[in-house]
Design goal:
eight-stranded mixed β-sheet, five-stranded mixed β-sheet, 13 strands
């Protein structure tokens, strides 16, 4: 039987020291439920070090992302305050193993999500929405993993940048999305790639939380999932994500001396 705590420590150490490890499933098989147990224990180690949980992220909500990663299931992980980067700030890619960035939409909740929600209820649980980017960084060698591996690894989540907040929920269904590196478009798509409508991510998140008997408190972030495939981070680079009707989020990468 897999040792949840020691496996969680292995994943946590890989992230802390930016050192890639072999896929966990190479040496021992485990179930998806056990993968979420490992994820929870790994995040628990971060909390013990002083980090605070600020929300959750959904993964594989776009078909492009599923194809890129070779999986077929919606997954989720946790966000902590240590992962939050300043909009317009500087990020050092060498803090990570093999970082990539993807354009997203981020929601801020206004009420506790304590039960499964319907599509009609979703927006009434939200305070605001913003253009955003997620920095992902699989802790596995060659950025390769099974579904169980990636869930155990907190769904590859490593950082996030959030642009200005607004209450423009009406135009989210099919807003244009562009991600630029030094002004050059490297990924383009539509928010329709996020479950057909990013607001559906709130419905999905509520169901996943309910299944795990978890209440997400008001004031939490929900990263809805990628609108396009991820793009490898380079340095130095100015990275910008523009979501039509919402605005932009941006940061600049640099090399640490």
């Amino acid at each position: 039987m897999i040792d949840i705590n020691s496996t969680a420590a292995r994943i946590d150490d890989a992230a802390r020291h930016a050192e890639a490890i072999a896929q966990l499933t190479v040496s021992q098989a485990f179930t998806l439920d056990q993968a979420y147990d490992i994820q929870r224990a790994s995040i628990g180690r971060r909390v013990e070090r002083g980090e605070k949980i600020i929300g959750l992220k959904l993964g594989f909500t776009s078909r492009a992302k599923m194809i890129q990663m070779g999986v077929e299931s919606l997954i989720w992980g946790w966000l902590t305050n240590a992962m939050l980067e300043e909009d317009g700030g500087r990020v050092a890619p060498d803090r990570f193993i093999h970082p990539r960035v993807e354009p997203e939409v981020c929601f801020l909740t206004s009420r506790d999500i304590d039960r499964p929600l319907t599509a009609l209820e979703a927006s009434s649980y939200l305070e605001a929405v913003a253009p955003a980017m997620e920095i992902i960084d699989s802790r596995y060698r060659d950025f390769k993993f099974t579904l169980e591996d990636v869930v155990a690894d907190n769904c590859s989540s490593a950082g996030l940048v959030i642009g200005p907040w607004s209450r423009r929920f009406d135009g989210l269904r099919n807003a244009g999305v562009a991600m630029r590196f030094d002004g050059r478009i490297v990924q383009a798509g539509s928010t329709a790639a996020i479950l057909g409508d990013p607001l559906r991510s709130i419905v999905q998140a509520s169901r996943l939380l309910s299944q795990s008997e978890i209440v997400l408190p008001a004031g939490s972030l929900i990263m809805a999932g990628a609108a396009t495939a991820a793009h490898a981070l380079t340095s130095p680079t100015h990275v910008q994500c523009v979501v039509g009707g919402l605005g932009r989020a941006e940061f600049t990468t640099y090399k640490r001396s």
